[in-house]
Structures are given as C-alpha cells and as structure tokens.
Amino acid sequence: MRADHLSVYGYERLTTPNIDAFASKAIVFDNAYSTSNWTLPSHTSIFSSQYPIIHNATTIETAISQDSVLLAEVLQENGFSNTAFTGGAFVTKEYGFARGFESFDDVHGLRAEEMFSNAINWVDSASDKKFFLFLHSVQPHDPYKKKQEIFEKEPYDIITDSKALELFERESSDQNLTAQQKLDLFNYSFTSERIFGKVEPL
To answer: Which residue ranges does the record assign to the Sulfatase N-terminal domain (predicted)?
Structure first.
C-alpha cells in the first residue's frame, strides 16, 4: 500500500478508514525505512536494532545470529510476558524469532481473522500484567482476491502488485478509470484495510 494513497497521510479520498481509526490512537511515522526489501532480514533488524550485515539473517539458509540480542529477550528480562502470532513467512521459530517469547504461534498461512481472534483472547487473559504482543500476517501480500460475499455481483478475480501500480499511476495522472478498474483498485487496498478493522478490540 502506497503512503500517498492512504487517507491517514493526506490522500484526498477516504481510502482507508480502518487504518485511519487505528492511526488516531497510535504513533504515526512520516518517514520509515527498511533495512531490506524482504521479510527475514528486515524483521530481524526490527527485533535486533542491527543492520543485516551484523545479524547475518540474509538468506533462506541463515538464521538470526546467536550474538544478536532481540527485543523480546530484553523485555522478558524486564518482567514482560511475551506472545507472538505469525503466519510464518520466515518469521518463525526456525529462524530464531521465538527467543524471548513464552508463546510463539507460527502457523504457516494463519489467516488474519483467526490470528486477531487468538490475540484478543490472549490479551483478555494477560490484561493484568505487562506484556508484549507481536502479530505478523502475510495476507497483505498479493494476490489480492475479492471476497465474494462483499462483491456478490462482481466476478471473482485477482489483482497483482504490478496491475495495482499501473492503476494507481493512471489515477494519479488524472486518467479516467473504468468501473471495473476502480473496483480492482479498491480491492487492492481492501485486504490490508480489513485487517486493521480487526484491531479495534485490542
């Protein structure tokens, strides 16, 4: 999702009301930079505050260096109860992400709906203590599929990153989009937007 097409960052159309609602109660970063363009090294950097050249988790054959101290380990030493729910995709026990977590649920392909349900139940049980909860869903990745119950009158189809980029560029240059293209563009943002719709109970 492009920042310049999110209403929370000033886009003129209300494209992401759920993300906007979440952002109103959270810290919003105007500038965010990733240490890598894929999951394993970038998430390891988030957890270790190290560049990939230091933590060494840079290929599918390499796990996080044992010399890297992770966020959950520091929090655990300071009395936090730590739990994670992930959909796999490299953020797994195998690569060393479970260090410092009392519970680390890394079910490959875990759907966001089930993940947030599990997280809400866990928060309810942990509300009387300091805790760190980490959620990682792979659902915002493509392909982006329309939910038939929402688009009942539209044919089921898939929109990829490249197609969405083409449509965003056409819209940004004030070119007219067909009704189907507008639906495709909406559907592209729908997956991430509906995930944030699940956050409110947390």
So the answer is: 1-150
